[in-house]
Design a protein that fits this description.
The structure holds two protein chains of two kinds. Chain A is mainly beta. Chain A contains no helices and eleven strands. Chain B has a single domain, classed as Immunoglobulin-like (Sandwich), CATH 2.60.40. Chain B has no helices and eleven strands. In chain B, strands 2, 4, 5, 6, 9, 10 and 11 form a seven-stranded mixed sheet that branches. A four-stranded antiparallel sheet of chain B has the order 1-3-8-7, with no helix packed on it. The chains are: A mainly beta, B mainly beta. Chains A and B meet through β6 and β10 of A and β4 and β5 of B.
């Protein structure tokens, strides 16, 4: 069965510091991975998908099939990045989400 | 984002009562989903639907019922609410196509349900 693991419940950094939110997955097929973000009192929204290899709001994520990881990175965190981040794995038509990591960026 | 709405936004109900959460989308997306969000569990899929009259169970479907008579609506019913069903419920929808871009799930604002 597929599984998504986000080992950190909370990640607290200072403004300007680098950020890495970890995501590991287990899946027997070819994975399709996403990062979703939920800002305070807002709905979840798509941040990144690995297939696009894009950078959104300064965030990037690279799929590493050897390490079965899809870590989210940003070189310089901003206060407005504070949010809950979910890694998700697509299987057929559905997504399996990790438990999420709360990112707190302090001034 | 206004294309997918949920009602009510907040609901308090008693144990044993039946309660229905509504979800409506205006994009004519074929897929719709219900999740519950709980601290320490993240988002867990309750039910999903590929089209009108086609539904399937997710990871945590016990105690829930869904229907989809129209493409735009996907109500979730708790037949006999229990305290363990206190949660935030999110509805989502997505299109279907040959392009992966069409797969993005769009989420509703959520319904906070408290079962006393």
């Amino acid at each position: 069965a597929q599984r998504v693991t986000q080992p950190e419940k909370l990640l607290s950094v200072f403004k300007g510091a680098p950020v890495e939110l970890k995501c590991n997955y287990s899946y027997s097929g070819s994975p399709e991975l996403f990062w979703y973000v939920q800002y305070s009192r807002q709905r979840l929204q798509l941040l990144l998908r690995h297939i696009s290899r894009e950078s959104i709001k300064g965030f990037t994520a690279d799929l590493n099939k050897g390490e079965t990881s899809f870590h989210l990175k940003k070189p310089f965190a901003q206060e407005e990045d504070s949010a809950m981040y979910y890694c998700a794995l697509k299987r057929y038509s559905t997504l399996t989400f990790g438990k999420g990591t709360m990112l707190l960026v302090s001034p | 984002d206004a294309g997918i709405t949920q009602s009510p936004r907040y609901k308090i109900t008693e144990t044993g009562r039946q309660v229905t959460l509504m979800c409506h989308q205006t994009w004519s997306h074929s897929y719709m989903f219900w999740y519950r969000q709980d601290l320490g569990h993240g988002l867990r899929l309750i039910y999903y639907s590929a089209a009108a009259d086609i539904t399937d169970k997710g990871e945590v479907s016990d105690g829930y019922v869904v229907s989809r008579s129209k493409t735009e609506n996907f109500p979730l019913t708790l037949e006999s609410a229990t305290r363990s069903q206190t949660s935030v419920y999110f509805c989502a929808s997505s299109g279907y196509g040959t392009s992966l871009i069409s797969y993005e799930q769009y989420f509703g604002p959520g319904t906070r349900l408290t079962v006393t």
